[in-house]
């Protein structure tokens, strides 16, 4: 295979093409809204990279979606579909917040403690659905959807409990203690946790016997069983890890950005954004880092679009289109390869 | 006794208002899933139906026309899903996820360019869906609560029956169920799998769109970005709960609807936190699943792109 | 079996002339000719992958031929879809049944051509018509049973009825006996006779010579996509046909040295188990397998073989009984425990149970050993050890294409996928090897390869339990044949003395008259 055809075979190319098409379709909508696409896209870019402070904020936006993206990517690679990352994220937020508010220990202990609590909460939330799947054959998509909502109302309930609720003003919890915040010199450093976990996830999937086992069960449960792998246990392990990652996503959100948990008016969408991030990152943990940063940049930059009177929803439209064109990347691949072949023949 | 009847009235009323959006969407989902196309984009299709319904009502003042337009807008998204999944063999979950971003994105986008806000203005009562026996009963009475709800809240049950009839009694229903089980067999018997799936996916969008439009044209009286959030997924849950059949989906949606009635009653009594009460439908679903339903066997070819040979 | 021809040599119903079908660079059919007469049984003989199915898919309108013409009843016709083929009176019974599992027999037969009353499907009329046709050709079916609940033989009758319901005059039967018992095969031959007596023509795709001799008038041989010849079946021998099919002389006999069985390896006593519906399927089965012998388990599908193998490999729990492997208790143990006790297996469904198709060949070769040295250490995989192991086995077992270690297993042909499994299981070097339908769907070359390795294992002193629906395979490999019927061993025959008639009798529930 020569270099040119190997580029045509690489999935990366088609992700880039999908992103480009997403921006083109976004541009059409912007023109419809009476906004110059160039101006809007420049605004997004400018808000992200103009100041170091903004780059840091972008990365702060990226950290939680990288983690939910990892959660979903891990589930895709191990043959389950974690559509419940949303709920696991929420209970993770809650667990981290409660530990962050009520346990007063030095930061070196406090931060890991919050993260472990969030991971445990997320893992547990996911495991309950896993056990129902393995023991009773209940469709995980269904139970995940239910658990997303239970988490949502649970969080709203806890937020409003006397003693947890902030004393004055607003329906939110008290602030986390400073020792539980992921803030160094006023800068959010959640991204480091996200990147480290991405690398660890990559190692687990690609290099370990655990990853081998989980993938084998994910691809073909029956063969794995035949070969002596306990498929039920593997599915539960995979779901626990996936849930823990989403839970940690919730932790870094509240420990970094929020500082407290506010009452939700509607689902936050981090879990669903995680699906998009996982797809753009081709379910590869390292790809997810870049996909998450891209998403973070779009979210942060998009929020500045109102300054030029452009609807910030354009971001959702663009991201949705990107996902659609990733879904049909094989069509482009076949097209390009056949063109490539014809050229070679001539 | 009077108290009991009044409360029962409130419960039925709340159930009659909460069930239709879910049931429309769930029936749509049955068509798509049973023909072999996973459609988790129901949520996005509902949202686009909701906004289109609201905008049409605001511009034309005709509630029924608005309702229909909501369905058509949903159908358009169904068409997109069909093109991507059926003709281009995309991963159906991925495509549905995309629809869930694009639908709400476009919905709010439209509000912004039309109304310069993320919400539409409130819809006048005359431009909403008509009510049954409008004005015949005293507001707040049992009869009013039970018999004077929006016409579509009753019609949706007729629609559910029609879906059941189509599924099990007609040729098309047989073909669509067969396509979801064994598309190669269908193709070998001269059934056009693509055509059947296109019709089903577009129909699923149409019905989801109607469900969304019901929300803005009956329940809420305006479009806000949060009017749908989650209902599409609950409809999907109801379908899985009902083992992918219209009659089962009806049961699933009624559980949610009735729990919603219980919720509105309990909220009035103000004893327990509203957040705890709000969990009821989800917890009940889970318990019902564990206790009675168990394994939901999806159609054999569900989610697998069918590629024509030739 | 007595043979009687109903062929009318003056009426050609289907004629295919110089058919070429290419897929990209690959030529599946290279100028093939076929002429079928009214009332004729015309066999198409060729190895797996020779292009038989492609040719029939062209005739059935599923593929468009690259070159060549098709004449139906003397008229040149461009068959553009299965629907069109059906209209032209051509019906196809696929090797892999095209049946909707949760539908009833009637629903399946009428699918696509449902009679209607208003907008409602007229199930009553449909049921009646189905019964009429099934009686006319002597094909008993239960019109109200669901496909998932009926036997393979009845499923096939449903397939044939489906075609007849549509008024087909020419029936294509693609490997119709692949999963039938000897009795069911006899019944099928009877059905074929009834059909031809009624003026129907049959195109029989097969690689089984015996069946061709039993019922076909003419036989067209295809090899590697090329037309070899059309012969009158009455004028050739089985060996002639085999030589034309393979292109060389074939040795059907498996070379096997005389050998005394050694000490007891696997012992099963009074095993009881239920199937997935909770119905008792194994009813006190007892069976011993010794070292150095091949025990063939003959039986009709559905008499408990599947469950027995699942129990032996730890996939399924039995109700009661005793199972020991070389003295170790393996009753109701996990797959891992039974494996460690010395049970290895070649599963019936290699794609479902034998391989992880998305994994590379190298990864598939360590499926039971990835947690052991040298393939991993402290939970970290050793890519080098895995690659070395793979390149060694790929070469030793001639798994093709050469150097396919890093290819996903799904890109390999069926025969080579089976070689991957055999390489793995034989390397495991366990005391017992359970082989379930080890040659299903493989071509002659691959079958020879598989048989050679099984015999080699036996010669090395391993115990072999061969479970197969191919009676020929059981008879040519086994030292001892045990017949399973209705969850019990109902007869035992020495491999040397076995004959098909007696086995067929036992498999149908007859008792040994010793």
UniProtKB/TrEMBL annotation, chain A:
The keyword Glycoprotein does not apply. It is a multi-pass membrane protein. Keywords: Cell membrane, Membrane, Transmembrane, Transmembrane helix. One of its GO terms (molecular function) is transmembrane transporter activity. The chain crosses the membrane at residues 12-35, 55-76, 83-103, 109-129, 141-159, 179-205, 235-255, 275-297, 317-339. It is found in: Cell membrane. The keyword Cell membrane applies. CDD domains: TM_PBP1_transp_TpRbsC_like. GO terms for cellular component: plasma membrane. Its main location: membrane. This is ABC transporter permease. The lineage of its organism: Bacteria, Bacillati, Bacillota, Clostridia, Lachnospirales.
TrEMBL record, chain B:
One of its GO terms (molecular function) is transmembrane transporter activity. It is a multi-pass membrane protein. The chain crosses the membrane at residues 6-25, 37-58, 64-86, 98-115, 142-167, 198-217, 223-241, 272-294. It is found in: Cell membrane. Its main location: membrane. GO terms for cellular component: plasma membrane. This is ABC transporter permease. The lineage of its organism: Bacteria, Bacillati, Bacillota, Clostridia, Lachnospirales.
């Amino acid at each position: 295979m020569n270099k040119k055809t190997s580029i045509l075979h690489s999935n990366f190319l088609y992700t880039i093409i999908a992103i480009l098409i997403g921006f083109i379709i976004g541009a059409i909508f912007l023109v419809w809204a009476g906004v110059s696409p160039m101006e809007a896209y420049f605004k997004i870019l400018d808000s992200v990279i103009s100041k170091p402070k903004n780059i840091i904020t972008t990365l702060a936006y990226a950290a939680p979606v990288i983690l939910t993206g990892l959660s979903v990517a891990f589930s895709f690679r191990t043959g389950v579909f974690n559509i419940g990352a949303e709920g696991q994220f929420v209970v993770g937020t809650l667990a981290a917040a409660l530990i962050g508010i009520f346990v007063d220990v030095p930061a070196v202990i406090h931060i890991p403690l919050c993260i472990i609590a969030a991971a445990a909460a997320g893992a547990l939330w996911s495991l309950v659905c896993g056990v129902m799947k393995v023991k009773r054959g209940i469709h995980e998509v269904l139970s995940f959807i239910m658990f997303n909502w239970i988490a949502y109302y649970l969080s709203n309930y806890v937020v409003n409990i006397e003693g947890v609720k902030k004393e004055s003003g607003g329906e939110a919890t008290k602030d986390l203690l400073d020792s539980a915040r992921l803030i160094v010199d006023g800068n959010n450093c959640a991204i480091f946790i996200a990147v480290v976990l991405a690398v660890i996830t990559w190692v687990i999937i690609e290099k370990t016997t655990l990853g081998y086992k989980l993938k084998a069960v994910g691809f073909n449960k029956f063969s794995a069983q035949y070969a002596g792998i306990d498929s039920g246990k593997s599915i539960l392990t995979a779901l626990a890890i996936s849930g823990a990652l989403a839970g940690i996503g919730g932790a870094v959100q509240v420990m970094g950005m929020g500082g407290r948990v506010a009452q939700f008016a509607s689902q936050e969408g981090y879990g669903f954004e995680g699906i998009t991030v996982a797809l753009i990152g081709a379910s590869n943990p390292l790809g997810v880092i870049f996909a998450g940063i891209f998403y973070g940049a779009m979210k942060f930059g998009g929020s500045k679009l109102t300054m030029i009177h452009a609807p910030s929803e354009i971001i959702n439209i663009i991201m949705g289109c990107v996902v659609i064109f990733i879904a049909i990347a094989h069509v482009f691949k076949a097209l390009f390869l056949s063109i490539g072949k014809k050229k070679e023949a001539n | 006794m009077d108290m009991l009847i009044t409360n029962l009235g409130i419960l039925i009323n709340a159930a009659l208002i909460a069930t239709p959006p879910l049931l429309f969407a769930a029936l749509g989902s049955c068509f798509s899933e049973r023909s072999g196309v996973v459609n988790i984009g129901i949520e996005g299709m509902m949202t686009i139906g909701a906004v289109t319904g609201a905008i049409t009502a605001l511009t034309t003042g005709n509630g029924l026309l608005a309702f229909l337009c909501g369905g058509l807008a949903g159908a358009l998204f169904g068409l997109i899903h069909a093109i991507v999944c059926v003709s281009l063999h995309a991963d159906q979950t991925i495509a549905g996820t995309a629809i869930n971003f694009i639908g709400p994105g476009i919905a709010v986008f439209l509000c912004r360019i039309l109304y310069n806000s993320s919400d539409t203005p409130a819809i006048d009562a005359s431009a909403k869906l008509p009510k049954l026996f409008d004005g015949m009963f005293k507001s707040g009475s049992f009869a009013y609560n039970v018999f004077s709800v929006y016409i579509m809240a009753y019609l949706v049950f007729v629609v559910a029956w029609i879906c059941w009839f189509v599924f099990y009694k007609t040729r098309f229903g047989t073909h669509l169920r067969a396509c979801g089980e064994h598309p190669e067999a269908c193709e070998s018997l001269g059934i056009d799998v693509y055509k059947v799936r296109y019709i089903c996916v577009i129909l699923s969008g149409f019905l989801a769109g109607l469900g969304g439009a019901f929300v803005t044209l009956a329940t809420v009286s305006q479009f806000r970005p949060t009017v749908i959030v989650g209902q599409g997924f609950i409809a999907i849950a109801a379908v899985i709960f009902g083992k992918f059949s219209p009659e089962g989906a009806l049961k699933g949606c009624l559980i949610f609807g009735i729990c919603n009635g219980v919720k509105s009653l309990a909220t009035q009594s103000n004893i327990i936190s509203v957040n705890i009460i709000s969990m009821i439908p989800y917890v009940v679903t889970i318990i019902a699943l564990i206790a009675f339903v168990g394994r939901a066997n999806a159609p054999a070819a569900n989610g697998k792109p069918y590629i024509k040979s030739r | 079996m007595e043979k009687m021809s109903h062929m009318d040599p003056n009426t050609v119903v289907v004629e295919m002339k110089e058919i070429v079908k290419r897929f990209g660079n690959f030529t599946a059919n290279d100028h093939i000719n076929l002429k079928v007469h009214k009332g004729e049984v015309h066999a198409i003989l060729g190895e797996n992958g020779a292009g038989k199915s492609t040719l029939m898919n062209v005739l059935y309108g599923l593929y468009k031929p690259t070159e060549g013409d098709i004449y139906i009843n003397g008229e040149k016709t461009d068959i553009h879809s299965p629907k069109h083929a059906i209209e032209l009176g051509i019906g196809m019974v696929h090797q892999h049944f095209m049946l909707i599992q949760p539908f009833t027999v009637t629903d399946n037969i009428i699918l696509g051509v449902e009679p209607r009353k208003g907008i409602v499907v007229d199930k009553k009329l449909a049921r009646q018509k189905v019964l009429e046709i099934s009686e006319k050709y002597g094909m008993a079916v239960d019109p109200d049973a669901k496909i998932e609940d009926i036997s393979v033989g009845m499923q096939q009758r449903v397939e044939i009825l489906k075609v007849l319901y549509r008024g087909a005059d020419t029936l294509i039967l693609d490997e119709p006996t692949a999963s039938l018992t000897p009795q069911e095969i006899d019944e099928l031959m009877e059905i074929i006779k009834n059909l031809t007596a009624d003026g129907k023509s049959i195109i029989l795709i097969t690689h089984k010579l015996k069946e061709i001799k039993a019922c076909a008038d003419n036989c067209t041989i295809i090899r590697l996509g090329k037309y070899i010849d059309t012969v009158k079946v009455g004028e050739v021998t089985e060996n002639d046909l085999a030589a034309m099919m393979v292109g060389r002389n074939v040795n059907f006999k498996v070379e096997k040295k005389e050998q005394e069985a050694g000490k007891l390896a696997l012992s099963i006593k009074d095993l009881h188990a239920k199937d997935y519906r909770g119905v008792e399927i194994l009813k006190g089965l007892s069976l011993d397998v010794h070292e150095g012998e091949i025990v063939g388990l003959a039986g009709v599908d559905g008499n408990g073989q599947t469950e027995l193998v699942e129990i032996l490999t730890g996939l399924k729990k039995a109700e009661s009984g005793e199972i020991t492997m070389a003295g170790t208790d393996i009753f109701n143990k996990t797959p891992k425990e039974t494996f460690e006790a010395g049970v290895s297996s070649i599963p019936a469904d290699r794609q479902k149970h034998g391989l992880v198709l998305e994994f590379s060949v190298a990864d598939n070769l360590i499926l039971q050993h990835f947690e052991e040295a040298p393939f991993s250490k402290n939970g970290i995989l050793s890519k080098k050890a895995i690659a070395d192991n793979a390149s060694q086995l790929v070469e030793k077992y001639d798994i093709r294409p050469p150097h396919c270690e890093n290819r996903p297993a799904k890109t390999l042909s069926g025969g080579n996928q089976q070689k991957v499994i055999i390489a793995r299981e034989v390397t495991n070097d366990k005391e017992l090897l359970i082989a379930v339908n080890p040659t299903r769907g493989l071509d002659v070359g691959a079958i020879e390869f598989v048989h050679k390795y099984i015999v080699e294992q036996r010669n090395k002193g391993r115990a072999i339990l061969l479970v197969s629906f191919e009676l020929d395979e059981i008879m040519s490999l086994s030292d001892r044949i045990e017949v399973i019927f209705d969850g019990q061993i109902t007869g035992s025959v020495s491999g040397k003395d076995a004959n098909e008639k007696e086995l067929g009798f036992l498999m149908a529930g007859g008792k040994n008259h010793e």
